[in-house]
């Protein structure tokens, strides 16, 4: 499995986070697991909450009802500006009781109190600054020909560092007859790679310092060819990552990129969640449409 293809799976793996056991079975302790992304200028998201349980050498998860879930927007001094209460929707989902928009550059704190447990689950994230991308050249390119696609981005500000980027290609015509050569070979030779699983492929993490800049200091982002699984129209989604998402993905990517990982056995993941595991992450995004020809 190629690095980029694995990384596309990493971005979608969070939905199954509680199926991965970060501990050896003989030292397993049940834990609460949370998952959500706060995306700049999007509505406040729902939150997935489960409790991990041992099951046949790996883990399963159980629903957690009755938790008191709050996400607070805080200022630079750490004082709460406004707090958003969440309600239980059934299953594993909690959703905000009042609609609101995630503000770029703001800090958000998560607090979850489970009545049957004395320890709160807490996390916080800083939302990356909003940014815009546009094509620096043509919106149509021959696959692996010419100079490829280049994106001109405004700066996505983040405290104390440059931006971390991930680029994803989402095929608008994900038909097997449109597969690019590398992914066609995978589908033909790997029964575990169905065509519909390749619709969205993501790049590795890029640092802002990896890119050249224009005369105003804005990053010029070259789009790697290996995120295109299909010819035709593709939506390019550019993400900038907060520290929580960056640390989680790079720690997960190290395991996929080194030795063979046994299903259900992922160690040393970086969570930044007190009283539990999972991801309370922040993102900013923008998109453009491109066409890849044969």
How does this structure look, described?
The structure is a single chain. The protein has helices at 3-12, 181-189, 243-257; strands at residues 32-39, 47-55, 58-63, 68-74, 80-90, 93-96, 107-113, 121-126, 133-135, 140-142, 150-153, 164-171, 200-202, 206-207, 212-213, 219-222, 232-241, 277-293. The chain has 294 residues and is mainly beta. The chain folds into two domains: 3-13 and 129-242 and 249-258 and 284-293, Sandwich (Immunoglobulin-like); 14-126, Immunoglobulin-like (Sandwich). Strands 1, 2, 3, 4, 5, 6, 7, 8, 10, 12, 13, 14, 17 and 18 form a 14-stranded mixed sheet that branches. Strands 9-11-16-15 form a four-stranded antiparallel sheet, with no helix packed on it. A hairpin with a 7-residue loop joins strand 7 (107-113) and strand 8 (121-126). Helix 1 crosses helix 3. The longest helix has 15 residues, at 243-257. The radius of gyration is 20 Å and the shape is globular.
Q: DSSP strand (E) fraction?
A: 35-45%
How far apart are the first and last residues' alpha carbons, in Å?
A: 24 Å
Estimated helix fraction: 10-25%
The CATH topology annotation of the largest domain reads as Immunoglobulin-like
The best one-word shape is globular
Which regions are unreliable across 5 or more consecutive residues at pLDDT < 50? 1-26, 258-264
Helix and strand run: HEEEEEEEEEEEEHEEEEEHE
Task: Describe this structure in a few short sentences.
The chain is mainly β. Helices cover 12% and strands 39% of the residues.
